[in-house]
Amino acid sequence: MKKIFSFFFLSVFFISTAFATHMRAGYITYTHNPHEDTLTYDFTVITYTNTASPADRPNYTISWGDGTTSVINRISKSLVPGTTDVSINIYQTTPHTFPGPDTYVISLTDPNRNAGIINIPNSVNVPFYVQTTLVINPFLGVNNSPDFLNPPIESGCVGQPFVYNPGAYNANGDSLSYSMIECKTTNGLDIAGYSYPAANHSFGINAVTGDLVWNSPEGQGEYNVAILIQEWRYGHLVGNVTIDMQITIISCNDHPPVIKTIKDTCVLEGTLLKFNVYAHCDPGEIVTLTATGEPLLVSVSPAVFDSTAHKDSTTSQFSWQTTCEHVREQPYEMTFIATDNASPVNLTAIESVMITVVAPAPPNLVATPMGNSINLIWDKSPCTKAIGYYIYRRNGFYGYVHGHCETGVPAYTGYVKIATVAGVNDTTFTDNNDGNGLIH
After folding, report:
1. Is the distance from CB of 92 to CB of 42 less than 8 angstroms?
2. Residue 288 pLDDT more than 90?
């Protein structure tokens, strides 16, 4: 009886531990359901788990932040490319209708965070938690959360700089900002004893590009960090997504590849933007150059970048024929990724580039004096997405020539906006100084 009892006790302990070591990373995204009203949204949950773990989740319970919950089912499970032990799980919900305009925190909890995470004490007993915020505001319009092109599972070497970018893009063209926050547990609470990974020099994220730089890891092991991505529209917060990601650091004798710096730029719509991307690695290794970014995904005239791989160094050209459909206030982000073939870890470098597509100025402006007024006439904007024109006036000649990437009429020129002409087809305006007449 003693032997049987001992065997039974050890078996239970083994199974419990195995079931508690699978959750590595994840996040929640959403899109407005175009077939429903402004209160109805579709949600996707993406998780990354240890493939060999017997702990498996064919479904989850998701909390909507409105006092209700639903069970969501997994629609696919597959290996993350380039790995042998990490699975990506995709869950999708049926459309959820919220009760009214408000701010909702949508969340998910999994009790089985994986064991042995260096910066989460006793991680095997710390539940995994992610949340996403949706702001429903009829004055700001419907919203889609950012999507992410780069998996939140990466590896690096002790003593070598680690870089990562989530590859975020937003179909609404909203402005995105990035910050590091602590990983959370049940009900969004802080994890007791949590700490950011120790670095030889620095650890942080670029608030504009989303480049996470860890320079450099001090010790081996698995680390979890969380990135908060916030969406802004007209200066108002319209939502956010939290990514809980995992970084595995091992001891290895290698240096990450290097990508030659590329400057941010802007182009006039209709311009063919072309530039070369160059990367090199340690001698004798093969460096592979790839890219992710919204310009590659737009439905009209998408950009082109061919992946390439060569020994020691490689070059590929980015090419984008821009059109009026690409014009917007916020820049597009391209992320170029260089990966070596070193063993046991393939190290990575990234280069993030911001590209702004600018609308052309209204062509063929003519100003004709008429008494104490001036009549203006111009040709219609070639971009039909335009919704109107701003009229600026200055007393005296200035000779302003805008600089590269400089749009609008800067205040330092002395020009003052005096009128707005609504409608792209209305191409005339009479300036009579609001009926007071202009001084000759």
Report:
1. yes
2. yes
Q: What is the DSSP letter of 33?
A: -
**Bond before 316 cis per omega within 30 degrees:** no
What pLDDT, on a 0 to 100 scale, did the predictor assign at position 52? 86
Residue from 205, 286, 200 nearest 242 by CA: 205
| Confidence (pLDDT) at 53 | 84
| pLDDT, average across residues 337-350 | 95
Beta pairing, strands 236-250 & 153-157: parallel
List, edge to edge, every strand of the sheet that includes 162-164. Answer: 162-164, 212-217, 199-205
**Over residues 116-131, mean pLDDT:** 97
User: Dihedral, CA atoms, 386, 387, 389, 390, nearest 10 degrees?
Assistant: -110
Q: Residue 312 carries which DSSP code?
A: S
Structure tokens at 61: 């319970």
Quote the DSSP letter at residue 119.
Answer: T
Pairing assessment for the beta strands 313-321 and 272-280 based on DSSP bridges:
antiparallel
Q: Is the pLDDT of residue 1 over 70?
A: no
User: SS3 of 254, please?
Assistant: coil
Angle at 121 between CA 215 and CA 348, to 5 degrees: 30
CB–CB of 178/228 below 8 Å? Answer: yes
Interatomic CA distance for residues 383 and 150, integer angstroms: 33
Helix/strand/coil for 216:
strand
Q: Which amino acid, 226?
A: A
- Tell me the CA distances in angstroms from 106 to 65, 93, 171, one per residue in order: 5, 12, 20
At residue 334, what is the residue type? Answer: M
Count the neighbouring beta carbons within 10 Å of the beta carbon of residue 79: 12
Six-digit token string for 170: 């937003």
Is the pLDDT at 32 greater than 70, yes or no? yes
Q: What is the pTM of this model?
A: 0.88
Q: Give the Cα-Cα-Cα angle 245, 46, 44 (nearest 5 degrees).
A: 135
* CA 59 – CA 186 distance, rounded (Å): 18
Find out whether 27 and 244 touch, Cβ atoms under 8 Å. yes
| Helix H or strand E encompassing 9 | helix 2-19
Instruction: Please report the pLDDT score of residue 362 as a whole number.
Output: 87
Residue of 390, 394, 388, 399 lying closest to 426 (CA atoms): 388
Instruction: Report the C-alpha gap between 120 and 261 in whole angstroms.
Output: 35
